[in-house]
């Protein structure tokens, strides 16, 4: 009984403290009402969606609080602000809007690769693809400060674009992924690795667009002179097995060897499954023997 009475006495203060924790900006706005009418409040672009998952049951602060100038003075300060607000149920949805507000406040503001990589990861994880496109536009229009001391682009530009390309391709938006890849190709100072092309190639194969995958491979090797790797051929072998049959897949396996690209266990296992699926067991066993001769272990799958 004594514990119940103590809890009953403390319950109002606990509720009040909880409300302040989840909505600290409400108390601030009541104490300083002039902030709500200040022109320096964070602008919300209606074309950019807010975080739809973790904060779907909450709306952003209304009116939106002003962004202190100290938080937008440098990319490092804004990065610290985003780290502190990442668990806030309302302010977490404003991550890109905070960056755009800082960029609008000063034409000299340029986000660095740590800030853009963090935002790209968050936008990709929450599938905010329009916001991801806006972020890439900002990255290209305002290069990372790392590029000031060199004639080359920022070497850490690739991870930001890789997250974006992967998000676009995973969602099935191949045009957006191809556009991001083309933008990165123009911004980068050296040829891109096959890894970036494999993302789109895998997405095309997953969408059962086999003909488009073959055309993309031709563009990758002939137009952009990118050397395919084992993962590239594994995608084409698997897609050919499912769409055209194992004979077409064997053509890609021979092309793989012609380009001096060593087959992997995935290559052999895909061909074996293709032969066994078509009832050609002797040819499947022949592939298994060749696999063992090359020192590649058999897969239990």
Total DSSP helices: 14
Could you name the CATH topology of the largest domain? Serine Threonine Protein Phosphatase 5, Tetratricopeptide repeat
CATH homology-level superfamily of the largest domain? Tetratricopeptide repeat domain
Number of separate structural domains: 2
- By CATH reckoning, the class of the largest domain would read Mainly Alpha
End-to-end Cα distance: 62 Å
Class per helix and strand makeup: mainly alpha
What Rg is obtained from the alpha carbons, in whole angstroms? 26 Å
Helix proportion of residues, in percent?
Answer: 55-70%
The chain-level mean pLDDT equals 77
Helices and strands, in order, run as: HHHHHHHHHHHHHH
Q: Would you identify the regions where 5 or more consecutive residues have pLDDT less than 50?
A: 20-40, 50-63
Portion in strands: under 5%
Number of strands: 0
The CATH architecture assignment of the largest domain turns out to be Alpha Horseshoe
Q: Which shape, going by the Cα principal axes?
A: extended
The largest β sheet comes out as:
none
Protein name: Pentacotripeptide-repeat region of PRORP domain-containing protein
PPR repeats: 229-263, 264-298
Pfam families: PPR (PF01535), PPR_2 (PF13041)
Keywords: Repeat, Transit peptide
